[in-house]
Structure to design on (196 residues):
């Protein structure tokens, strides 16, 4: 009796695994939006700010597609039929949705909008580097890379006295950083001189 109930239990268990496996392999995969290479998800964490340059493309609508639009100092962009759009702090995906929602219904039935960053706003390097100044931001930028872009460290550059003022920091207080610290757009990096 016990043997039969164990066999019955194992049969039910095997059947449930078989049904689950079959549904796993036969169901069509659901495509995830925004995961394709080159899609806006690659920029999802980057926040737009004054000085960024964007390209806006509306598929099939050349009059509504604009290239190399630089955000104003107020963080706005001029756009046909929608006027001046305030995009400061938005991601690329946010801007795509804003334009899509603005065009949908009144102007287009189903607008397909793509926004790409053409040029990032600059970061700045001061102090003991060969070519101090402002340079276009690059994703994944570190102190080491920023100094390299600015021509490399001078001979007397300190490896421990490096400071950054973050773009969004209202206090504008320098924070100590190391070679692997992340540098963001609009940040001001200062490399001090070593006296030893």
């Amino acid at each position: 009796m016990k043997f039969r109930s164990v066999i019955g239990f194992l049969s039910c268990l095997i059947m449930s695994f078989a049904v689950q496996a079959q549904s796993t392999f036969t169901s069509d995969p659901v495509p995830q939006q925004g995961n394709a290479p080159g899609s806006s998800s690659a920029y999802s964490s980057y926040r737009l700010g004054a000085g960024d340059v964007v390209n806006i493309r509306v598929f099939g609508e050349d009059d509504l597609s604009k290239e190399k639009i630089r955000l104003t100092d107020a963080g706005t962009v001029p756009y046909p039929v929608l006027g001046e759009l305030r995009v400061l702090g938005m991601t690329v995906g946010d801007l795509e949705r804003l334009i899509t929602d603005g065009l949908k219904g009144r102007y287009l039935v189903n607008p397909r909008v793509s926004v790409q960053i053409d040029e990032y706003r600059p970061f700045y390097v001061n102090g003991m580097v060969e070519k101090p100044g402002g340079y276009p931001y690059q994703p994944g930028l570190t102190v080491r890379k920023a100094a390299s872009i600015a021509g490399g460290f001078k001979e007397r550059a300190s490896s421990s006295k490096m400071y950054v003022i973050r773009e969004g920091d209202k206090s504008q207080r320098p924070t100590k950083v190391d070679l692997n610290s992340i540098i963001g757009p609009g940040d001001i990096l200062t490399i001090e001189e070593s006296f030893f």
Q: What stands out?
A: Helices lie at 2-26, 92-103, 143-149. The longest strand covers residues 157-165. The two ends are 88 Å apart (CA to CA). Residues 2-26 form the longest helix (25 residues).
